[in-house]
Amino acid sequence: MNQNQLVITSNPADRCNYNQRIKFIVLHYTVSDEKDSLRVLKQGDVSAHYLIPKEAKSNGTDLWQLVPIKYRAWHAGQSYWQTRNHLNDTSVGIEIINYGYGLKQASGKILWPYQVENNIKFFLIQEIKKDKSLYSLLIKKNLLSAFLEDVMRGLVPPRDDQIYKKYISEKIIKKYTNLTNSLREQHDPFLNIKINDLYELQQQGKLVWDDYTPHQRKVLGLLLKKLTKELEVKDKNGKVCEEILATDIVGHSDIAPDRKSDPGPRFPWKYLAEQGIGAWPNKQDVDIFLKELSKNKNINLIWLQDNLRLYGYNIQTTKILDTQSKDAIRAFQWHFEPDNASGIPSLKTIALLKALIKKYPPIGIQPQINTTTQLKNSINSGWKDLKNQLLILDKDLKATKKQIDLFF
Asked: What is the DSSP string of 50-66?
């Protein structure tokens, strides 16, 4: 070793003697339009690795890469899949511009959440303009966008954080947050819709889901094939040491079923599976299991809870159809039984799960998770990350309804 120079010689370990960060691929819808989606995902304290527009752009762009996959994007929030928590650490996040669910109006038109957001933003800006000194400050310091993000969504873009705190008081923030909440109460028909209301509203013909475009379906297929190939790890003899499995490609609702509905029941899971991407049960197996189950028509709730957990969901065996069970069942149905995403298990729900476990046998046993175990996992993930996750959770708990699916 020279006195002022450190000599490092590369002496690589066998490629199968270590692993990589990415274990999962998580699919999302943005709820927002293209302009808002790009702005928020690039500046708004949330991020994703890729964003897919509804159509190819005039310059030939099919999609945007916003974050290199070697870095950790902020898209999953509080999440769990196959015994792992905090999936930001171990996943690629793909956002797709899709409006989520909309409400049918008397005119026959569909009202989408992003339209409501734009209207509330317009009203809010008109009110801010009445306070000439505040409006002048926000324009002069280029903080209007950050202020709107804060009072509407509780998120300040990281690049604006320091200067924002310097010039914007808590009193002003509270005043306009309260005003925003008041505007929501007057103008936001989505405000009081909860995740367990969606199926009933859909059955009543009051709610519709936005469809994914042919462009998005095509790009998703190509991108997922590209990623799974790139993330495959082989040794010098060609042996596969590590890969993204079919059950490792999931929706946000799969990993956060108590609070997320994306990518929704219109997501083309079956279409992708037909191209060899992601999990989907064999129809013949489903039919056989359904025929067997139809003989006694009993639904074994304990078996369902145990095996949803075995497949990957965060569900505990309580022996009752409680809220956490309905949430996990609804997420499973959005993925595999989208015409019956009620949260109430059907015989087909059981048959689908049986067929999936037959086709993709889980490795090991997924233990029940209790508070102590979750705390230990959080501590083991590092105090810095724990602090970040608690901040994210705090934002989520304080959020109004319109801090919706785009944000974690």
From this structure: EEE-SS--TTS---EE-
